[in-house]
Amino acid sequence: MLKNCYNEGKIEAGCDEAGRGCLAGSVYAAAVIFPADYQNEELNDSKQLTDKKRHQLRKIIERDALAWAVGVVTPEEIDKINILNASILAMHRALDQLTVRPEAIIVDGNRFKQYGKIPHTCIVKGDAKYLSIAAASILAKTYRDDYMDGLAEEFPQYDWKSNKGYPTKKHRDAIRQYGVTPYHRMSYNLLGDGQLDIPFEF
Fold this sequence. Notes:
This protein is an alpha/beta fold. Helix content is about 35%, strand content about 15%. The protein contains six helices and five strands, in the order E-E-H-E-H-H-E-E-H-H-H. Helix 1 (about 50-65) packs across helix 4 (about 130-155) and helix 2 (about 75-80) crosses helix 3 (about 85-95). The protein starts with 11 loop residues before the first strand and ends in a 24-residue tail after the last helix.
């Protein structure tokens, strides 16, 4: 059972991102604020759930949350500011859109930048520990997957419907054969030619 909150008695927003290790597409992040006594035994780290279950839970999260929002940073922005800064910017953009002002922020991973004057706590594997971070991971993942499915209609040869932009063999073989698209992150090691890839997670 995931914990309800880290900061007792405060309006707390949980944040997470999706798509950090992808070769193509925007990076997405979400912020979620639940009621103080909220419980949901089905919520978990999005990576532990099926696609169908994630989309089912998305509707429940959006219904039950006091506030939720999704932030997006484009491939062009990622190439300019790097993926770590882009992931944090996506979280800030999600926080910007919340209709309820949080008094504290909890973030999945170990890196974050101060958001205004609101205190924050980084929690490694937080999406498997706290409800609001798990919910944010589900929103970020499902909205990004839907976005990549849309891009796959435009560029079917890269198999984005299946790989969502991650560096699979099929994706890299398609880059070799067809070249890059406007959605590829040009600052990444797109062909995997002996260099270290950017890690998938913080």
